[in-house]
Amino acid sequence: MKIATFNINGIKARIDALPRWLDAAQPDVALLQEIKSVDENFPAEVLEERGYNVHTHGQKSFNGVAILSKLPLEDVICGLPGDDADEQARYIEATVMGEHTAVRLCGLYLPNGNPVPGPKYDYKLAWMERLRQRAMTLLAEETPFLMAGDYNIIPQAEDAKRPDAWREDALFRLESRTAYRRLLNLGLTEAFRARTHGPGHYSFWDYQAGAWNRDDGIRIDHFLMSPACADMMTDCQIDKQVRGEEKPSDHVPVWVDLAA
Hints:
By secondary structure, this protein is an alpha+beta fold. The protein has helices at residues 17-25, 45-48, 119-141, 174-184, 191-195, 227-230; strands at residues 2-7, 29-33, 53-57, 65-69, 73-78, 91-97, 102-109, 145-150, 189-190, 221-225, 233-238, 254-258. It has six helices and twelve strands.
């Protein structure tokens, strides 16, 4: 079972690039972020004709997440539990039925948090605590699960080409990395780093200042997996080449293969 996460930075802008990547990569499931579309305007047809079941949790012009799946999905829920007043479309969950086992998928678009300090950063940290509480609930249920998406977190210095430039940014501040570590410390596995070590691996390059041409990137798109899910992982890769294609997102897909 090949599961990918991809911040597409707007479905309208990526209406050609997304299907092109799907055709080439052939993921069984794709978790999308920043679709920037209300549900009724999301162009599901172009994805359904490729064999995907489409579930969206959209919001006009901002945020928005989706699940595309060639495999059966059950129990789809929208919104991260823990704050009924939160109206931002940043979280979607579903159970995917694999050949051998079911896996709970949690697709997320974690808040950016800038500027720091301020209410946006407070919201980011509170959202991360809600995510940790959700992980604790899923761990107690003993269902294999993964939490994948754009975390807007640079976990450590080697995950940025120029870490010093990010020291006071919400993506790399100590409080942000500490909250991320608290999530990992529940017993979750960060899929990419479980297989690949060292610097030079990024999933985001800004559109500004020639960042892509200089490989001035950061790694902020992650898969966090429960122990039962991590045991099924056979591979995890970043599709870096997608950033160099026509009309790309500023993020690239990251994917895992599970023996599920």
